[in-house]
Amino acid sequence: MHLTFVSLGIVLYFQNNLTFTFDPKGEDLRSRLCQGLLTVLGRQFGPRCQSTCLETLRILSRDKRVLGPVGTREGMLVLAGLARLRGGTEGGDSLQGEVQIEEKERVVVEALKCLCNVVFNSAAAQQVGADVQLARGLCARLHATRTGRHEVGLFSLRLLFLLSALRPDVRGALRRELRAVGLLTEVLECTLDVRWVGPYEAAPPDPQALPIPAEDNERAMEALKALFNLTLSDTSDEDGDHQLRLITAIMRHLLMLKTQTEDKTEEAHSHAINLLSNLPVSCLDVLIDVPVQGGQDEYSGKNMDVVQVLLDFMEKRIDKGANYKEGLTPVLSLLTEGSRYQREIRRYIKTQVLPPLKEVKVRPEIGSTVRNKLVRLMTHVDMGVKQSAAEFLFVLCKENVNNLLKYTGYGNAAGLLVARGLLAGGRGETKYSDDEDSDTEEYKSAKPFINPITGHVEEPMPNPIEEMTEEQKEYEAQELAPALTPPPSLHSSGVDGSRRHVAAASLPARH
């Protein structure tokens, strides 16, 4: 019987390896095939037979409507056993010794892929995964495995990410009981080859070093996604300031690295920014508290290299012109909070985004500078994008309404001012340093002529009379004369007026 399922599995695998949608008419057959494959996998067959069955089950597990047999406790335990996770604690320590043969490693990888699909597509499987403590087995695996086959680590991290994303109870257990934040931090240190030269300072990457290998980058991305889930809520109590500042330092290191392609580098930086946005703002000083190359002390000796990387990332996301909500707002939020609470960060960003104003004859939303791009976003149709861009510029202006209007114009800033109750002017609630920005001579001379609504000097309207002939002027004056002549007044001076006053005075008084 099992040979029949294995043969059918081979046929299904080669015919449907790239299939992700299925004909509803075959649901019953596919469901029974899932059950048969699990029966075969539950017996002691060789790794080649197990791999074939798992590859077939992996394809079937893309169809959430046939996962009834797999989402049971028995089905999940079969897969967990083949992935060396069964029992929660025994798989991690023995994986290296058991999976020396390629075929056995292939079984582990295919079982992990099946678990990822099943957990993603089946709520029942998510519940069973929590009950049988898959997360504990995954943490044991990651504790014990520092080298070995790339895919074993990759899909272990991916399954951990899925469980932490879909099950809040698993997320809490990972943080409190399994200390997964520290574990994933160690995974990142190892994967990114972080070498510490200070308490929260990683050695800078060698300019001549090769980019991060593609496999290391993939594992790092999965670890970052899982860490993001674990730091969504307040982590200060469970993980402590030291752990979170350590993560911040690793994120700084990652932001200074390059991968083998520009798109992969952008993806890595995006995950790093998302994670940094979850951390307490008190940790952000780690990003700039690094010795400056060349000994420049312009920003109190703080290193602004990573801040420039974040600004470049922000501008690149603006230029893409799509998916602003997910792609742009996280970096805007991070830069806003960093500017609000780190004076040196705000000063540096303002020099890049809002340099001293010289061009005052063009509307602030027109042009290709970073300021122009951000001002355009202040009137974006998406409320979240609009608010994020406006808040960022407002903080750069030290939450001073007059300073904001100088750079954006009243029309662009109106939405923020209404939301903050600052239409009449004033400041936000955050306290900033007292140093004032000096205006350029160009701005000072043009300031009286700037339209506060549009934020620029408007060209004077042409005088229509200048181009008229004398006959045209006389004709227009005659046309306007009746409209400009006032009606006679009851109290106007002259003979008629006097008579009216006399007549009115001679009338008998009425009592």
From TrEMBL:
Q: Name one GO molecular function term.
A: G-protein alpha-subunit binding
What InterPro entries does the entry give? Answer: ARM-like, ARM-type_fold, Chaperone_Ric-8_A/B, Gua_nucleotide_exch_fac_Ric8
Q: Which residues form the signal peptide?
A: 1-19
What Pfam families does its record include? Ric8
Q: Where is this region: Disordered?
A: 428-511
UniProt xrefs under Gene3D superfamilies? Leucine-rich Repeat Variant (1.25.10.10)
Q: Which UniProt keywords apply?
A: Chaperone, Cytoplasm, Guanine-nucleotide releasing factor, Signal
A GO term from the CC aspect? plasma membrane
User: Where does the protein end up?
Assistant: Cytoplasm, Cell cortex
Gene Ontology biological-process entries: G protein-coupled receptor signaling pathway
Keyword Zinc-finger attached: no
Answer yes or no on keyword Cytoplasm: yes
For this chain, the family text in UniProt reads: Belongs to the synembryn family.
What is this protein's function? Answer: Chaperone that specifically binds and folds nascent G alpha proteins prior to G protein heterotrimer formation. Also acts as a guanine nucleotide exchange factor (GEF) for G alpha proteins by stimulating exchange of bound GDP for free GTP.
The record describes its quaternary structure and partners as: Interacts with some GDP-bound G alpha proteins. Does not interact with G-alpha proteins when they are in complex with subunits beta and gamma.
> Could you identify this protein by its name?
Synembryn
**The organism of origin for this protein:** Salmo trutta (Brown trout)
Q: Which gene encodes it?
A: RIC8B
